[in-house]
Amino acid sequence: MSTYAKKQGFGATLWDFMTTVDHKKIAILYLISGGLFFILGGLEAVFIRIQLAIPDNNFMSAGIFNEMITMHGTTMIFLAAMPILLGIMNAVMPLQIGARDVAFPFLNSLGFWLFFFGGVVLNLSWFLGGAPDAGWTSYASLAIHSEGHGVDFYVLGLQISGFGTLIAGINFLVTIINMRTPGMTYMRMPMFTWTTFVVSALILFAFPPLTVGLFLLLFDRMFGANFFDVAAGGNTIIWEHLFWIFGHPEVYILILPAFGIFSEIFSTFSRKRLFGYSSMVFATVLIGFLGFMVWAHHMFTVGLGPIANAIFAIATMAIAVPTGIKIFNWIFTMWGGSVTFTVPMLYAVSFIPSFTMGGVTGIMLGAAPADYQYHDSYFVVAHFHYVIVGGVVLGILAGVTYYWPKMFGTMLNETLGKFTFWLFLIGFHLTFFVQHFLGLMGMPRRVFTYLPGQGWETSNLISSIGAIFMSVGIIILLINIVITSVKNVRVGNDPWGDGRTLEWAIPSPPPFYNFKQLPLVRGLDAYWIEKMEGKKEMTPAEPLDDIHMPNGSIIPICITIGLFIAAFGALYNMDNKTWSVPVIIIGLLITFGSMLVRSLKDDHGFHIHKEELMDDKDKEVKA
Amino acid sequence: MKTRLRKWRLISLFAIMTLILAGCGEANLSALRPAGEVAQKQFNLMVLSTLIMVLVIIVVVVLFVIAIVRFRRKAGDESIPKQVEGSHKLEVIWTTIPILLLIILAIPVVTYTFEFADTSAMEVKDKDGKTKDAVVINVRANLYWWEFEYPDYGIFTSQDLVVPTDEKVYFNLKASDVKHSFWVPAAGGKMDTNVDGVNQMYLVFDSNKANEAENLFYGKCAELCGPSHALMDFKVVTKSKDDFNSWVKSMQTVAKEPAVAEGELAKQGQEIFNQSCIGCHAVSTSNNGAGMGPNLANFGERERIAGFLPHDEENLKNWIKNPDDYKPGNTMSGKYGDLTDEQIDALAEYLLNLKVEDK
């Protein structure tokens, strides 16, 4: 063990993270880069609220404002929320099913780097002639009309990072199907693993339509195709369908992991098993399934006709039923329990009313004839921020606080955590509650300014003040992270004291091979069962033996950098630059060359020998 | 806990105060002050869904508050609560009741969806090919301005939509460059103007409500369409059926004999207009010229300059001088070279006197 854990210099650590295929380190990479993008997206949000704080404001120009809203939405969804959730999944899911890593560690690394460089491509647009400005939905007619390279950055950035997400989804699916420890049947899987499973399936089916849509747009913009050019027989509504066939499941890709995190937190801090586990699993699967049946509710005003609108309205309302089941099950998990209000639990508790409000406005939006009024107004803005901030972001904050000790071996400060919690929660409601009424009072969304005298001044000001609260909350969280990391007080296996699932049965952070011996699972909440029988650790399901581990590899970064280079070639192709085609070719050569090396070079990984593991155990006993 | 409760109370108090302060918005703009049949029905549906949803929220919050207050862990309590698996009965209850509530909501939703989509009256034509008993208006949305054509009367106007009260007004909606969305919040929900095909809808403007709003409603573009999306406003002028008919008459008169400028300055202005502006802007109500810019035949009677600036000479001059200062990304900037201040004065004089009604 000692050979692996020795202190390293900065360069060595950097190299280690660049080549790592360890799911826990990749999780940290996801968390850090997702966190950075979250701050970036947050800054953009603050700028938006400054611009809208007073009528007729001149804080930024109309063009810049459209770039801000586009980048805020795109960044928050694709580069902040999803990666952070993928990070938590990476950190926790293999531990929860008792696996030593994901099924394809190499692909896991590749998925991360694709996401990361995709995000870099997108954000480089700020420095290379302007960010995309057609909204995060990038509706085709506007996207084609948009000048400069902004939308090209959007297309290529999302294409690259989308491949990464798709790879991650497939990887998780295979992992959960194949790598569960003995005794871990499907109906004994922790709720978070279940949601990871369903979300991975959603990613598998939802991302290809986006990829197709982005390719069509890419060909239209960069290579002179006419898929969306009406004059040439194209059709722009196709883009809307493709986008929302991806876009609606995407909402569930974000919210389901948050549901999973909250399920773990509710039962841990109520000291009670999840109420109605099987109906929760059923509801999760049903939400995932129905999530694909409702995309056209984003298009009620497009003119699809009354039959389509009515069908999609009913389907949308149907989703409320499984979601309601979940809400009540969470409440009844606490019911009769022994509830303690740690910071993660505070987030979980506040999530219930916040998310319920977002959910019910969702049903209101699903009522098609009324949606003609809500659509594209601030009501929609209020709704989806209630769902995404009140659901996903609270879930992320809860999950990060809850799993911080498992990932880093030290606890975030609870007092500072409570400051963050209250500021963020108050700020969130302050910012978005009034926006419902702004929408109903006729304020369209995505407006860079508004004239005085339309009755919107007070609410907009309140909304902007709320944004300050949220920002201060996040700043305190960052301070908390710094303080915690500097103090670095180490914690044991089960720092919250009431851990129920396998991840709490092993050290924090876990050794790189996770489980010395794969644990035997005897029921739902496997670790809790052992604890209740007075045991300190899991019963092993196998004798102590050599562990086979994969080698790290730099190839994932090489593959990604090739695509990164090719993207810039494609981007400037429409300017008739002579160097653009050679650059595309060089980039793709790097990518496919790296793949070839990977295919031809045998890499059998290495074994940790039984003796080393035994040493380790002996040391623990002595200490 | 007490302090927490107090905080919550503060927040809700704050929220309610906000509501009261903000009221329900302006009569000419707010969906909460419906000014016609369509908006009224949509408003009723909003109220129904809100009531059902408030009911749901109350149930959730009550259960939730009981759960977090009653089952708090006492200090030093190390007991292990009973590990309940679930309850079949409860699961059935909270599956069935939401389904029932949703059915209650679904009935008016489906009914109204079909009702609002019923534009069959537009198809009933008389022997001249004109719509028999309905006012039909073709709306064409362009980068930051709106064109309104009355095909049955053979007239065009732009920016100010003129409609009769107390009857269904039907719209054909289309965009000519990028996607926009046609929205008059006080009169009803929006409909997208696509580049791909024509959408149809109808609105009704109630005469009493129109009086409250001083016969002027605000229209908005609701779909992001570029930098000046926020400024792509239009106005709806409501008139009684008689006034509407006489407005149509005077518009038709101008269609036959286009206005001739009166006065020295205005004549000068007309000359400049004919050199620099006429390529894009029509001044006869019978056509829309090349369709590149708003029809200006009744410009002097418009409510706003460029759709959102107060209608006065100074704003008009500033606008002509540099449209990009006011509507970034518009398609007018740079199309007519630099005009001197004198030329702009003349042009403004000419344009502000383009009127159809008070002649």
From TrEMBL, chain A:
Enzyme class: translocase
Swiss-Prot/TrEMBL catalytic activity: 4 Fe(II)-[cytochrome c] + O2 + 8 H(+)(in) = 4 Fe(III)-[cytochrome c] + 2 H2O + 4 H(+)(out)
InterPro entries: Cyt_c_oxase-like_su1_dom, Cyt_c_oxase-like_su1_sf, Cyt_C_Oxase_1, Cyt_c_Oxase_su1_BS, Cyt_c_oxidase_su1_bac
Residue ranges annotated for the Cytochrome oxidase subunit I profile domain, each copy included: 9-522
Subcellular location field: Cell membrane; Membrane
Protein origin, superkingdom: Bacteria
Keywords: Cell membrane, Copper, Electron transport, Heme, Iron, Membrane, Metal-binding, Respiratory chain, Translocase, Transmembrane, Transmembrane helix, Transport
EC nos: 7.1.1.9
SUPFAM superfamilies on file: Cytochrome c oxidase subunit I-like
Keyword presence, Cell membrane: yes
Membrane topology according to the record: Multi-pass membrane protein
Signal sequence coordinates: none
Transmembrane segments: 27-48, 68-92, 104-128, 153-179, 191-219, 242-262, 274-295, 307-332, 344-364, 384-404, 416-441, 461-483, 554-573, 579-597
A Pfam family recorded for this sequence: COX1
Associated pathway: Energy metabolism; oxidative phosphorylation
Biological role: Cytochrome c oxidase is the component of the respiratory chain that catalyzes the reduction of oxygen to water. Subunits 1-3 form the functional core of the enzyme complex. CO I is the catalytic subunit of the enzyme. Electrons originating in cytochrome c are transferred via the copper A center of subunit 2 and heme A of subunit 1 to the bimetallic center formed by heme A3 and copper B.
Family the UniProt entry places it in: Belongs to the heme-copper respiratory oxidase family.
UniProt protein name: Cytochrome c oxidase subunit 1
Organism the protein comes from: Peribacillus huizhouensis
Lineage: Bacteria, Bacillati, Bacillota, Bacilli, Bacillales
Automatic annotation (TrEMBL), chain B:
Cytochrome oxidase subunit II copper A binding domain boundaries: 132-250
Isomerase as UniProt keyword: no
Topology versus the membrane: Multi-pass membrane protein
Gene3D superfamilies (alphabetical): 1.10.287.90, Cupredoxins - blue copper proteins
Reactions mediated catalytically: 4 Fe(II)-[cytochrome c] + O2 + 8 H(+)(in) = 4 Fe(III)-[cytochrome c] + 2 H2O + 4 H(+)(out)
Protein keywords: Copper, Electron transport, Heme, Iron, Membrane, Metal-binding, Respiratory chain, Translocase, Transmembrane, Transmembrane helix, Transport
Localization per Swiss-Prot or TrEMBL: Cell membrane; Membrane
Cofactor(s) the record lists: Cu cation
Stretches assigned to the Cytochrome c domain: 264-355
InterPro entries: CcO_II, CcO_II-like_C, Copper_CuA, Cupredoxin, Cyt_c-like_dom, Cyt_c-like_dom_sf, Cyt_c_oxidase_su2, Cyt_c_oxidase_su2_TM_dom
EC number(s) on file: 7.1.1.9
Transmembrane segments: 43-71, 92-114
Coiled-coil annotated spans: none
EC primary class: translocase
Cited SUPFAM superfamilies: Cupredoxins, Cytochrome c, Cytochrome c oxidase subunit II-like, transmembrane region
Residue ranges occupied by any Cytochrome oxidase subunit II transmembrane region profile domain in the UniProt entry: 23-120
Pfam families, sorted: COX2 (PF00116), COX2_TM (PF02790), Cytochrom_C (PF00034)
Function: Subunits I and II form the functional core of the enzyme complex. Electrons originating in cytochrome c are transferred via heme a and Cu(A) to the binuclear center formed by heme a3 and Cu(B).
Family statement drawn from the similarity comment of this UniProt entry: Belongs to the cytochrome c oxidase subunit 2 family.
Protein name: Cytochrome c oxidase subunit 2
Source species of the chain: Peribacillus huizhouensis
Taxonomic lineage: Bacteria, Bacillati, Bacillota, Bacilli, Bacillales
